[in-house]
Amino acid sequence: MAGAEVSKSEVVGREEELAAVRGFLADIERLPAAVFVEGEAGIGKTTLWRAGTAAAEGLGYRVLSTRPAEAEGRISYAAFGV
Ligand SMILES: Nc1ncnc2c1ncn2[C@@H]1O[C@H](COP(=O)(O)OP(=O)(O)O)[C@@H](O)[C@H]1O
Ligand SMILES: [Mg+2]
Fold it and tell me: How far is the CA of 6 from the centre of ligand 2 (A)?
């Protein structure tokens, strides 16, 4: 399933996390579902998230993505309140 490949070109290591994302995307029977990525600033959350959304697009999912602006960062779910 080449489309399910999470890009390795920009992600160093993180095999376990990338495998979790691949599994999440492949297990369509469980959708809707969510992946929760947590960790300290700079640990690589956004890097993993980008690889995941790219993989989802590769699989043909319609990807709607949103991120808060810095000023909205302390407001829970601000990015969803459009
Ligand atoms: N696994 C990784 N492979 C390559 N670069 C990484 C990896 N994890 C983090 N980085 C780099 O480290 C920096 C911080 O990563 P980032 O994903 O923005 O962290 P976070 O979102 O957790 O704050 C970025 O420049 C990113 O490219
Ligand atoms: Mg980030």
Answer: 18
Q: Give residue 70 CA to ligand 1 midpoint distance, Å.
A: 17
Quick one: pLDDT at residue 1?
44
Cα-to-centroid distance, 25 and ligand 2 (Å): 21
- pLDDT single digits (tens) 33-55: 888 999 999 999 999 999 999 99
Sorted by sequence, the CB contacts under 8 Å of residue 75 that are 6+ apart come out as 68
> Which amino acids bring their CB within 6 angstroms of ligand 1?
11-14, 39, 41-47
Q: Tell me the C-alpha distance between 31 and 78, whole Å.
A: 23
The C-alpha angle 63, 68, 74, rounded to 5 degrees, equals: 140
